[in-house]
Amino acid sequence: MRQTAFYQMAAMVGLSFAAMSCTGGGGEGPIVPPPPAPAEYADKHMPAGWWADESKVEEGRKLFIGETNPDVNCASCHGKDGKPVKAGARDFRVGERMKLYSDSVWFWRISEGVPNTKMKAWKTKLSEEDRWKLVAFERNFSLSGKGWDPAKNAWVAAAEVGAAPAAGAAPEAPAGGDSATAPAAEPAAAPAAPAAEGK
Ligand code: HEC
Fold first, then answer.
1. Cβ–Cβ contacts within 10 Å for residue 144, how many?
2. pTM (predicted TM-score)
3. Helix (H/G/I), strand (E/B), else coil: 157
4. CATH number for the domain including 120?
5. CA-135 nearest atom, ligand 1
6. For residue 126, is it within any domain?
7. How far is it, in rounded angstroms, from Cα 133 to Cα 74?
């Protein structure tokens, strides 16, 4: 029995080494979905209309490069043009990864940082509005023209976010039963969480 326990432990140690060598300690390991945003952030979303508002994006750009406030210079690690200049900094140009981030997750990470990395919490230095401007700007490195639609749980064309009376927006949506009289324009089923995509 003792031996079994020993082998189990050895196997676990081996696994964690394998996991470490996969991520290599850098920020750009294999593409996996980010953890879900904690409860206090899960319901926070981009203010209405901002995805398509170039002035917000421009304010986000000035924040990002440290023009608005030299104490806040995201570009000093993430790079002015999105090409990271500090090892391990997230590369926002990698759309395959970034499309797995909801706006809430993005906002949460900027607010609270990523533990045990160089990415610190910015909520004391940046208002909520400023953090949203940064999300609006950063998403342009790979998700240009898109916005996160909380109702669809997906990135869609920026102008479509909240514009159409989509699921969630219309309180008088037929609640089933009379579906025969109201041909559904769109599938009503909730889309799968992006996490399902995996690697
Ligand atoms: C000192 C360097 C540094 C600065 C400055 C910095 N970051 Fe980061 N950032 C990082 C690193 C390193 C990571 C990768 C963390 C990890 O491994 O998940 C990261 C990750 C991120 C992520 C993704 C988090 C995730 O879960 O993948 C976002 C979003 C982000 N940064 C936004 C910003 C914004 C906005 C600013 C400016 C307000 C900023 N960063 C400033 C180093 C930095």
1. 10
2. 0.76
3. strand
4. 1.10.760.10
5. 35
6. yes
7. 13
Indicate whether residue 88 lines ligand 1 (CB < 6 A).
yes
Nearest residue (by CA) to ligand 1, atom 13, is: 89
Nearest one of 73, 90, 69 to 141, comparing CA atoms:
90
Q: pLDDT tier at 29 (50, 70, 90 boundaries)? A: confident
- Residue from 145, 181, 152, 148 nearest 166 by CA: 152
- pLDDT, one tens digit per residue, over 65-93 is 999 999 999 999 999 999 999 999 999 99
pLDDT digits (tens, 9 = 90+) for 109-119: 999 999 999 99
Structural domain contains residue 169: no
Cβ 65 under 6 angstroms from ligand 1: no
Q: Whole-angstrom Cα distance, residue 56 to residue 62?
A: 10
Q: Is the CB of 122 under 6 A from ligand 1?
A: yes
Closest ligand 1 atom number to CA of residue 86? 2
Residue length, the chain? Answer: 199
- Which residues constitute the domain of residue 144? 44-151
147 CA distance to ligand 1 centroid (A)? Answer: 20
Residue 159, domain member (yes or no): no
Residue 66 lies in a domain: yes
Please count the structural domains in the chain: 1
